[in-house]
Amino acid sequence: MGEGLPRLVRGIAQVGLDAMNLDYIVIDRTSTVPLYEQLRVCISDAIRRGVLKASMQLPTENEIIESCGVSRQVVRQAYGALVQNGQVIRERGRGTFVKAENYGVFMNKLMSYQEELALSGKVPKTEVLAACRRSTPEELSGPSDLGDSECFYLERLRSADGKASVHIQTYLPYSRFPGIERFDFAALSLYHTLAKEYGVHLRDAKRSLSAENASDREAGLLGVETGKALLLLESHTFDRNGGLVEVSFEHFAGDTCHYEFEVAAGR
Asked: Kindly report the CA angle at 212 between 141 and 174, in degrees rounded to 5?
């Protein structure tokens, strides 16, 4: 470990795996975030940024243990969460790999847009159109919604391989996330920031899907004709204690995405 960093453990270069190094893994032992969650976020972020590309093999348990000074249980918990989130797959006798299939937009998994696109091998880009503290819209101020007179409003335009694909408007109760406007969400994941900076971990979301005709502004942002049918995905996302974390509205052009559902048989 480097001198001057007694509490910060960084991954070091290793041979094999196409000379992959573990510089993308940073474990902060002073943080209240569990070690396995820090490891999961680091790997997830590396997938999102394209450091770990589709079909690439992840380091073995022993390589992470040796390089990062964590226990085998920590590595297994992190890898298990990545498998459950659909970002990686385990192949018996071969190892763990970044999932190469295109899973479109998950309706039943809480993942960042960058993570979803990374699974398909596409290059994501986010443009922040607004990020500010403002009065909560009346229709979202009730106790069953944000329940706060002020909110953090985040408006983003996302692209895949240079083509605009989704316009998203997000509202979070400002009292829960003071100072959140200081973060650059053109580069950072909102969900990762909530976990790392505020200790808020997501549990589930209620989502509804409907159709809506493109307004002049939506058409201009998404590069479609005014009046074209768009998909509107509305989400209410909750933390592990059942508290509402965000309300979001995402507009997609139908020819830029697909949705995948997992449906269990009745018993």
From this structure: 25
| 35-39 long-range Cβ contacts below 8 angstroms, 24+ apart | 35/70, 35/71, 35/74, 36/73, 36/74, 36/75, 36/77, 36/78, 36/81, 37/78, 37/81, 37/195, 37/201, 39/64, 39/68, 39/70, 39/74, 39/75, 39/78
pLDDT, one tens digit per residue, over 20-49 is 578 899 999 999 999 999 999 999 888 877
* Pairwise CA distance, residues 62 & 75, whole Å: 9
- Architecture of the CATH domain 124-260: 3-Layer(aba) Sandwich (3.40)
CATH number of 8-98: 1.10.10.10
Q: What is the pTM of this model?
A: 0.59
Angle between helices 61-68 and 72-84 (to 10 degrees): 130
What residue ranges do the domains of the chain occupy?
Answer: 8-98, 124-260
